[in-house]
Amino acid sequence: MLELAGLGVVAAAFGCGPKPAFVLGAGERLDAETIDRDPIALLPPGAIMLGSLDLEALYKTPIGGDVNAIVESLVPLGRESNFVPSRDTRKLVGGVWAMKGVDLCAVTQGSFDVQAIQRAADARAQAPSGAPLVKTRYADVDLYTVGNLGFVLLTPSTMLSGNEVGMRRALDRLRTKKPSREVAPWMIELFDTPGASFAIAGDFGAESAVEVDAFGLPRRTPRASARTPVQPVLEAVSKTYPFLAGVRAVRVLGNFNPPGLNFAGALTYESEEAALAGSGHLKNLSQLTQWINLLAAFGVGASLPPAQLAPNGKDVGVVQPVDTQFAKMAISIVARYLRRG
């Protein structure tokens, strides 16, 4: 989720320019109010994973300052842009698509000084990494790209970001039809869960029937024979993370209540046998936290309680609290990785 958050708010710093004039058939125009109304409706159809994040809630937590610092380090604009992530962004929704590979698209909503950002973006020719910042005209809007990532401000309150394939699919939809949700209903139900500050939903080959599992989360019954473009990716990743072998759906909810971050969700597998195996691998992974806690006892790092696992048929429920100190340590690791990149 942090990667998508960074991607989305970076869009606020780059994507700007004249208010877009998306014209549908018969000359009908999409105004800013229509575009701002529903960020999920701006995303391309067919997502294999979707996530939502309450940025306002995040930035009010003890880790908010750490996240803000990372985002600001990703934005190659100075104070002249009048852009402060913790002040100017409110909500993010984004996802992953398996089209010609793995593609990203995200929508961030907030309030942005368009003219200041315009001047700041036009005054710079490269990102902190040294990669050129390229301005391209596409779908009647200015698209800024660094490498394969692009961003564009759709209105003063909404920006779109992602890699080139994901971005262009979203922009093409705005030129051909009114924004509409093309997302599995169970994902929307998950995002609308009261009290959740963030949610993640993944569909890697589930059927269309919506059910409610033993953990009270909506899900679609997986089918063992399902094959989607993401399956080869999952199979490759599962060699390093065996608990992902046979996963067909993921549901995660979370909030920022004490001790810091709280995750609760479930993995749905292709069979009960795969679920039992996945639960075993998750248990082994959870046992590694004992070594982390041992290091913390000697003043190295931070502690992390073991995850609570609850196998139930083809599902494995997972509950994981994360305290603020551990979250800050994880964020610092991410920051060092990004600086190297």
How do you describe this structure in short?
With 341 residues, this protein is an alpha+beta fold. The chain has helices at 2-14, 32-37, 55-59, 64-74, 85-88, 114-122, 164-176, 185-191, 231-237, 272-297, 324-340, and strands spanning 22-23, 29-30, 49-54, 89-98, 102-110, 133-138, 141-146, 149-155, 158-163, 198-203, 206-212, 218-222, 247-255, 260-269, 308-312, 315-323. The longest helix is centred in the C-terminal third of the chain and has 26 residues, at 272-297.
Structural topology:
Elements: H1 2-14, E1 22-23, E2 29-30, H2 32-37, E3 49-54, H3 55-59, H4 64-74, H5 85-88, E4 89-98, E5 102-110, H6 114-122, E6 133-138, E7 141-146, E8 149-155, E9 158-163, H7 164-176, H8 185-191, E10 198-203, E11 206-212, E12 218-222, H9 231-237, E13 247-255, E14 260-269, H10 272-297, E15 308-312, E16 315-323, H11 324-340
